[in-house]
Specification:
Helix content is 34%, strand content 16%. The protein has 308 residues and is an alpha/beta fold. It has a single domain, classed as Arginase, Chain A, CATH 3.40.800. Strand 5, helix 6 and strand 6 form a beta-alpha-beta unit.
């Protein structure tokens, strides 16, 4: 097994939606034993602490958009942190709501450009997050990062996306909550998308293996963004956007084990954990276990834990 230097970067972003609590996510991952789990696998772990958001005072393009300035500031700070971390190891961004990926993907893509390698993104999520600030009905910016880093319009005031991720380099797995505006935009895009019906019918390994082959054939860098709501809420309740019918624990571990076997993952987001909604830390623990699977822990190595 290849051993990595894993760089933990806390991203206590809570501006992407109105329900508060994700700012506690980074420390919940630490408390659930992320450092120890990775060190047990032989990886070196450097915890850089939490990124600090600068102050911004900007006017949103639409009055319904929430926390515009804060999200822009987080995007700037996280893009810089991600780009700075990439030469030194495999960064793991501890969220924080999913708007943080506007920054993390931008930063890792800047680094990929310097390496003259294409950037790919695996988006494990119940939602496509392909809204723009002008198309969203809710005004919640955690529903917009994929639109941002693929270069859609409507993000004036955000850091300019100099190197948008090509649509065909994005794969979304786990979809089961997509509104009409997003549906129409996705259908007109070249993004690879796999909803839960397809997974029920054909399994989760087939679309993932096909995407990983594309990454490998292109000598690409792969950013993985894992949202808690990719998982079924019966096993991962600590998220404010619960959607029934998500991935099982076994399906999720299979995805992460396949990622490890491929050797392609170069950066990782763990997002949308709201510890305020958790049950005795079970969701944080599961997310830590999934991160460990992506970095080499096998099914027979996984410890059995009691939540009593």
């Amino acid at each position: 097994m290849t051993h990595h230097t894993c760089i933990l970067i806390g991203a206590p972003v809570d501006s992407g939606k109105q329900r508060r609590g994700c700012l506690m996510g980074p420390d919940a991952y630490r408390t659930a034993g992320l450092v120890e789990s990775l060190e047990e696998l032989g990886h070196k772990v450097i915890d850089e602490g939490n990124v600090v958001r600068p102050e911004r005072n900007l006017t949103p393009p639409d009055a319904k958009v929430h926390f515009w300035s804060e999200t822009i500031a987080w995007t700037e700070a996280l893009a810089d942190a991600a780009e700075a971390a990439m030469p030194h190891g495999l960064p793991i961004f501890l969220g924080g709501d999913h708007s943080l990926a506007a920054g993390t993907v931008t930063g890792v893509t800047r680094f990929a450009k310097k390496q003259n390698r294409p950037q790919f993104v695996l988006w494990l999520d119940a939602h496509s997050d392909y809204h723009t600030p002008t198309s969203t009905d809710s005004g919640n910016l955690h529903g917009t990062p994929v639109a941002y880093f693929t270069g859609r319009d409507g993000f004036d005031g955000f850091p300019k996306v100099e190197n948008p991720v090509p649509q065909e380099n994005v794969c979304i797995i786990g979809l089961r909550s997509v509104d009409q505006a997003e549906h129409d935009a996705l259908m007109a895009s070249e993004i690879f998308r796999h909803d839960m019906r397809e997974i029920d019918e054909s399994g989760i390994a087939k679309p993932l293996a096909a995407f990983l082959k594309r990454v490998s054939d292109a000598n690409g860098m792969l950013h993985v963004s894992l949202d808690v709501d990719f998982l079924d809420p019966s096993v991962a309740p600590a998220v404010g956007t619960t959607v029934p019918g998500g991935a099982t624990v076994r399906e999720a571990h299979l995805v992460m084990e396949m990622l490890h076997d491929s050797g392609l993952m170069t950066s990782l987001d763990l997002v949308e954990l709201n510890p305020f909604l958790d049950e005795r830390g079970r969701t944080a623990t599961l997310m830590v276990d999934l991160a460990a699977s992506s970095l080499g822990r096998k099914i027979f190595d996984r410890p059995t834990r009691s939540h009593l």
